[in-house]
Amino acid sequence: MRRVEPKKRGGYASAKSSCRPSASASLKGRSAPQQHESAGSAVLRTVGGIREGCGYLLGTWRRTHFSPDIFPQALNGAGSVAHLDDLDAEYGNVWRFVFLNDEGHFILECTNPGPGTAKDSGDHGSSAFLTPDLSLDPHRGRAAVLELIPYPPFREGPTDVGLMIKAEASDLVLCSAESTKSVHLLTQHEANTTKTGEAGCCGWVYNIAWEATPDEDIALELGEYAH
């Protein structure tokens, strides 16, 4: 079976030794917000199994209809608005969690947004942050504050972390629709929309969770989808 090699991702280098989840990782009590440190710092947090400073691919936690013709999808920040694209897309698929405290509040930074990103500075290696309207912006101060909610694993890979992403101080959850490759902030009630398929049975329209996989591990996981 041929192994799928990941495409070149502009402006990002993995930190292999530091991005694997710790067995003791858990959500901790409240602490005062701290200044975000650079990758490699000894004080970087691990919250809910996610290691700060590491690059992750956020694959869909699929509860919607499965189609064998669709390559595994992931959150993508290339272009002007967040959307879904292939897990091994050239740009926009590597995300870094910047934690604001130990309770799981964070902002989400796309480390390889690529050309064409909203307000792109022209440096395709620069990063962009997810904003409240799900657009991408290079200014950290405009980033949406999000909350990490632990969720059961989906593919159950040794380094995969299941999670829901919730907008802080709201009942909105970051959801995805693989049929349209779109991403939305929805209430649980809105996200539980169903539709009748060709076989006459109902199915979910939106996925409500994600699975984070360290960037350096994704080539191994994609091998099973090669033909």
TrEMBL record:
It comes from the Eukaryota. It comes from Vitrella brassicaformis (strain CCMP3155). Residues 1-10 have a biased composition (Basic residues). Residues 15-25 have a biased composition (Polar residues). This is Uncharacterized protein. Residues 1-41 are annotated as: Disordered.
